[in-house]
Amino acid sequence: MSAPPRSTSLSDSSSELEQLESTGSWDEALDWFKLEHPGSRSVLHHANYKFLLEAERVIVEGHGVVLINTDEAGTLIVTNFRLIFLSEETENIVALGTIPLATIEKFSKMVVKNQPAPHQSEKTPSQRLLQVIGRDMRIIVFGFRPKTQQRRDIYDGILRCTKPSRLWDLYAFSCGPSKFTNANPKVRLLNECFRLLGKGFCSASIDMIDKGSYTLSNELWRISNVNSNYIMCPSYPFALIVPKSISDEELVHASSFRSKGRLPVVSWCHPGTGAVLARSSQPLVGLMMNMRSNTDEKLVAALCSQPDGYKKGQRKLYIADARPRKNALANVAMGGGSESPSHYFQSEVVFLGIDNIHAMRESLFRLRDYLDTHGSTSSDGTLSLLRHGGWTWGGGNLSSMSASVATLGDSGWLIHVQSVLAGSAWIAARVALESASVLVHCSDGWDRTSQLISLANLLLDPYYRTCTGFQALIEKDWLAFGHPFEERMGMPTVSGSSDTSLDLSRQSSVGSFPSSPMRQSSGSSAPQAPSSSHAQNQYSPIFLQWIDCVSQLLRMYPFAFEFSSAFLVDLLDSVLSCRFGNFFCNSEKERQLAGVSESCGCLWAYLAGLRSSEGRSHVHYNLFYSPLKHNGPLLPPAAALAPTLWPQFHLRWACPSEAQAGELEAQCRNMSLKFSELQKAKEGAEKKAEETTNAMESLSAELQNEKRLSSHAMTLAKRANKECAAIKRAIQSLGCRVHFAGGDTPVDIETNPMGMTKRESDGIVQHQYNSDLSISISVVADDVVSDNPLGGVCDAICPLSSRDGGCRWPEAGCAQSCSQFIGVKANYDAIDSLSIYETYFDSVSTL
């Protein structure tokens, strides 16, 4: 139970504050009394923290805690996933003080006594600190108020959550797959095997794996399912690419001659020459170095198989032993060793001289201490420039410059990185320049071998330099081929035990330190728990070192990689945090037994989701990537392999300002975003301009059409005028008078009033008509068009139109002009009385 908040009166606060100020010592940073009511608080009150992840819950929290590195006060929260430090001033998460529990390498309590000032006789309170050392290159120190139980509560909370007894107690299992669903990694591995054999058109499936129907082959190599049940080699994947000429029985026999059963298998094959990169563990040559295996020698010789038509002579085989020669000889005492070139046809054995996991671990510890000592946010709360008083550089005076640089060199980290890079470049050059095959191994074939073989893959194959290909490379050469992430990262095992333990030592009072607390080394010199020793501790930053090597290649070839340095940092942080299950356990078999892919979220889905959220402008994409510029192998010369500290990772905590090596890239990215926005605006303007042009063309076409219609209408109007004149003449020929009023006003046609009488004169009968005749003619609209010229003139009610559509008007005179504008309305009683055919024509004929 946490202690209740300790109330402090104003007088007590002033008295203690005067004592603290009078010392003039380092604990001036611990200005506790500027905080109101420091102490532990019920976690139920803050159960609704918005920054908590899914299934993340608060275990304990302490208020009034000071982050010594930055002299910042705030609240320290322990959850089931991480340690969170909230700023008292802004209430925001402070990145330096927030670390996933799985990333914590060790933590310890420290009590430091302050030496009172010469004029002060009263005893000053001790400083109660909590030091947290992370695997991500940071050392954090939290200060707690004296005479409170805060530090004990926080310490106990970290102790309960940092080292669970079972794998299933990790946060990743509590969270579950959620939205980052993990597709079966065996399917992805099989698809990569198909690609390597030139069978990329085939697609793997769970059903194919269950039936074992994935044993495809090409001219030289085949996929074997001999290890589908993980009996031959528990640390190898279920599918292996092996020479086509070697049977499964021979594979099983050859595995007995290699350490841990890790026989030589193909990791990558050149699509043109057929040269391969192969990996294995050391051979078991025995104490006398005289043990041999004919099956192993046959298998290794088959790695030099050549395709039909290969005309470059016998292919050479290089056996690259990653260890120093003396280390390989030392393994003879345990039955191991190295190959004899005389036993393996066309072979040459080369020792690359890379140190073991213990040397890498100690090297990283020394580098971390160096950065903390000479960094700007050191764990003792002072700047390196001011640590010893006076104008200093690198943690000392001007004369200590060379000593500081020597300290960095003594860490050996950059030398180890250079050794791995040089070995990988040498391997890639043998395959690319000589078309030779290379077999790589170390002792067990899962640490240095994984580093070398995956870096060589990266140098040879441009596909692995893309985001998708990089994922496939890690899943193939690190996860499937059994790099022991569980041991190297100190995670709990499937069985519920662990070979390593965190350093939970408690440091007691160690004397007086007027200017700074005791700096506890983060390396092996610190007190260790009884159950862990240098020999038993299998933790080692092998994967971290490999990512560091990739960052060096990215620095040398900025146009060759689709992903950025920020992607590598986020990938490494995610692996160290154990938030996702992809890197749990030691092998593919163990992850399958634990049901990791079904129970935990997928790191790759998480990273892909981040990239898809912003598209190509996301920080994980390399702004300068140009696949056509480096579409072949990368073969760096030896002079280019001098590494430097990786600023974005090594310096981000100790030297945050100097770690902004990606600032230029960030500015270029902002410029690229602005350019992209301008490009989109330009495309939008061009699209609008095109639409406007199309609209203008359409309007122009309509205008032309209107002009044609107008011209046609003028033509029709002229024709109508002619027809009107013709009709007028025709009507006037009947003895009628036509009166035009204009427009649509009816045209009145009248005859002279006269009567008709019949008389005979000289034998001629003459008729006289007295009937009044009136005819009304109206002009029809211009757009009324009739298909039948007669129908256009003769209305259906006209008595002179016949049933068959003809016209009884004399000689169809009213329609001879094909008029489309005239309709006839008449006094039909008068017209009927005309009896045109009987009277008019008769009278005409008698004339």
Automatic annotation (TrEMBL):
Its EC number is 3.1.3.95. InterPro entries: GRAM, Myotubularin, Myotubularin-like_Pase_dom, PH-like_dom_sf, Prot-tyrosine_phosphatase-like, Tyr_Pase_AS. It comes from Salix suchowensis. Residues 668-709 form a coiled coil. SUPFAM superfamilies: (Phosphotyrosine protein) phosphatases II (SSF52799), PH domain-like (SSF50729). Residues 492-533 are annotated as: Disordered. It comes from the Eukaryota. This is phosphatidylinositol-3,5-bisphosphate 3-phosphatase.
